[in-house]
Amino acid sequence: MAITYFIRDLQAPELVNSADGADEERLAAALERICARDVRAIHFGHGAPLVADCNARLQRSLGIVTKKEGEL
Questions:
Q1: Do residues 31 and 65 lie in contact, with contact meaning Cβ atoms separated by under 8 Å?
Q2: N or C, which end of the chain has less CB nearby within 10 Å?
Q3: Which domain holds residue 38?
């Protein structure tokens, strides 16, 4: 089933801001669930939606988050 993903505008400090890594773990778990779907569009709070290579971009984001987890 294809889905459209809506997210609010985030800046890096707001996205991951726990000292104990809990935010990163929850974010990684959420991204894993989203990556398992066929995402056709990501709509941000501002600007044009992302409508190409959505799953690849999400997978890349997941890789960045899980890499950060390993550095804590």
A1: yes
A2: N
A3: 2-71
* pLDDT tens profile 21-67: 667 788 888 889 989 999 888 887 777 888 999 899 889 888 888 87
Question: Domain count of the chain?
Answer: 1
pTM equals: 0.68
Nearest-Å Rg of the Cα atoms of the chain is 13
How many residues are given for the chain? 72
Are the C-beta atoms of 14 and 8 separated by less than 8 Å?
A: no
Classified as helix, coil or strand, 40 is: strand
How far, in Å, CA of 21 to CA of 13, rounded?
A: 13
Q: How far apart are CA 22 and CA 72, in angstroms?
A: 10
Strand partners, 39: 3
Q: What one-letter code names the amino acid at 14?
A: E
